[in-house]
Amino acid sequence: GGGWCNDAPSCAARAGTRRGSTRLMSKLEVFSGVLSNDPARNPDFYNWNRVKLRYCDGGSFAGDSEFRNGSSVIYMRGQRIWDAIIADLLTKGLAKAEKVLLSGCSAGGLATFFHCDNLGELLGGVATVKCMSDAGFFLDVDDISGNNSIRPFFSSLVALQGAEKNLNKDCLNSTLDPYLCFFPQYALQNIKTPYFILNSAYDVYQFHHIFVPPSSDPRGHWSRCKADPSACSTLQIATLQGLRSAMLTALKLFEGEPEVGMFINSCFAHCQSELQDTWFAPNSPTLDNETIAELVGDWYFERGAAQEIDCAYPCDSTCHNIIPSNQVSYWEMQMHMQGWVFEFGVYLCRVYLFIFSHDILQVGN
């Protein structure tokens, strides 16, 4: 995923990499999974217009501030980038859309929550606007040592990037700590637009960086478990159930809500909607015999109940466990199968927002 930056040094460093500048990003992108134009691979959305937004601001498209240090200036402009892109798309056909799905993965999945209501407002309530967040349900949870490292991280991010003014106003009015509204479990209580939560209960990013960050495991006892779930000890598996429990507790408030969809599986993965194998394929992960693509379609088109939560690991035999150490090779295999060859490491370093409209959308000249 594209991640975030929460202090001046990390944001300055990011600006000179493919995570912080479109000049350094790959020129070729692959549309697969939820972005595929093949009805056999993406039955509900294959014929929709698709737009992929480049993510480079390090603040989930929510920042708007400047940091000055002598003659050096860092401009954090995520919110302005979002505003400018949507304004441009509105002139190119988005304003005439009948159906729209806003989606994103990881930091882009978090951005989807932030901008869901805003997109609906910009379209004037005429279009059917819904939002899907893939691996964007980042938890407010203590790590295995009892510390909470994600709270101070998001707090410093919100402060540095001036994101508070762009977070959900109702959420901000309900707390004395604005950074808490960067967490979906608090912000979603105030979102009015229908949304779908696609997440693993053992999301590998949260497992590796929030629940068992390096600071909580100085002797590296979790290294083998992180690299290969089958190498986890019985005690480690029991500990990991705490991550799943925190996820299910946070989701409890949204269960049974008719406009909220969920696909919460018990796989070790992070981002499943853009990989063809995990989105819609003969061996895709399933819950109650439905793939991710089928359940998302049921939710968007209101064909039936669309909330599925998996049993605890290791019960699910349909999982595709995708660990960061082997994720590049996994993507490489997938893209070669589709006839694409490009720099895979570059692809994995970014997160996107996706906009789909079921009307004519013209992009470019």
UniProtKB/TrEMBL annotation:
<dbReference type="GO" id="GO:0071555">
    <property type="term" value="P:cell wall organization"/>
</dbReference>
<dbReference type="InterPro" id="IPR029058">
    <property type="entry name" value="AB_hydrolase_fold"/>
</dbReference>
<comment type="function">
    <text>Hydrolyzes acetyl esters in homogalacturonan regions of pectin. In type I primary cell wall, galacturonic acid residues of pectin can be acetylated at the O-2 and O-3 positions. Decreasing the degree of acetylation of pectin gels in vitro alters their physical properties.</text>
</comment>
<keyword id="KW-0378">Hydrolase</keyword>
<dbReference type="GO" id="GO:0016787">
    <property type="term" value="F:hydrolase activity"/>
</dbReference>
<dbReference type="InterPro" id="IPR004963">
    <property type="entry name" value="PAE/NOTUM"/>
</dbReference>
<comment type="similarity">
    <text>Belongs to the pectinacetylesterase family.</text>
</comment>
<keyword id="KW-0961">Cell wall biogenesis/degradation</keyword>
<keyword id="KW-0964">Secreted</keyword>
<protein>
    <recommendedName>
        <fullName>Pectin acetylesterase</fullName>
        <ecNumber>3.1.1.-</ecNumber>
    </recommendedName>
</protein>
<keyword id="KW-0134">Cell wall</keyword>
<dbReference type="Pfam" id="PF03283">
    <property type="entry name" value="PAE"/>
</dbReference>
